[in-house]
Request: fold
Amino acid sequence: MKFNSLIPELTVSDIDRTRDFYVNILQFKVEYERVEDKFVFLSYEGNQMMFEQENGCWSVGPLAYPYGRGINFEMTVSDVESLYKRVLDFGIRPFRDMKVSRYKSGNTTIVQKEFLIQDPDGYLLRFTD
Reply:
């Protein structure tokens, strides 16, 4: 497996709940895990994320829900519409419903279909096409 040059590692309150959400609902793949450390490395179509249950080793201050305030993780996926339907089918209320967004980048405009949800700890996930 090739590791991305940037892989976020998120502190979570309950590794089993996080693993279940990402694997069973969003269909991420477990690349490896260290059960004894309450750690899991997950991927989805080239997107890579690490999760570790809160243990005090990496904390720079107290965590409170929603975790990750001020950040969202944008992930490009091959079929954003199917993923959106899956999320809705599991009864997850989107943070932002599916819509087409336009973003200026220099002299061009990037057009992408996207939706946002929060994971069990409140981290904001943005899925795009």
